[in-house]
Amino acid sequence: MTEHKASIISWFRFDRKGLGFFAYSMHRFSGVVIVFYLYLHYAVLSNLLRGQATFDAVVRAAAYGPYGIFIVMDVLLTVVIFYHGANGVRLMLNEMGLGLAHHKALFFVLEAGAMALMLLFLYYAWQAVLSGSGL
User: Fold this and answer.
1) d(CA 134, CA 29)
2) What torsion, rounded to 10 degrees, do the Cα atoms 111, 85, 31, 112 define?
3) pLDDT tens digits for 99-125?
4) Which pTM does this prediction carry?
């Protein structure tokens, strides 16, 4: 029983894990977040079936602050999607045998590129929100 507990506890010991474990864990976690957000999105949009007034009430109930929770969640979702996409491209390249010798460098290059694209996307999205055309 002690061996079993020790093996489970070792899952949460990050000091002995490498980049591969981090990439694997974050890829799984980001996938779960994307699926959760997708179902949450469907649940909110399904209120349109009950009429515009019901939908507006649900959105008003969930929104708070000067910009609302939906904008914050969209920014976080953007981070997750760009990470998940870049890591997915890395995994596809590795499956084809490309970049295996330099998989750590490939990880950092693809993630840096994805984060640069994400910042560009968020800049233009924020401009749309400020101008009122993105709401």
Assistant:
1) 29
2) 10
3) 989 989 999 999 999 999 999 999 998
4) 0.78
Find out whether 27 and 94 touch, Cβ atoms under 8 Å: no
Distance (Å, rounded) from C-alpha 126 to C-alpha 9? 42
CATH 1.20.1300.10 assigned to domain 19-131? The reply is yes
Determine the Cα–Cα distance for residues 126 and 72; give it in Å rounded to an integer: 11
Token readout for 82 is 């760009």
Q: What amino acid occupies position 121?
A: F
Report CA-CA distances (Å) from 33 to 36, 63, 69, 130.
5, 20, 16, 27
Annotate 72-115 with DSSP letters as a single string. Answer: HHHHHHHHHHHHHHHHHHHHHHHHTTSSSTTHHHHHHHHHHHHH
Residue ranges of domains in the chain: 19-131
Mind listing the pLDDT tens digit for each residue in 36-48?
999 988 998 999 9
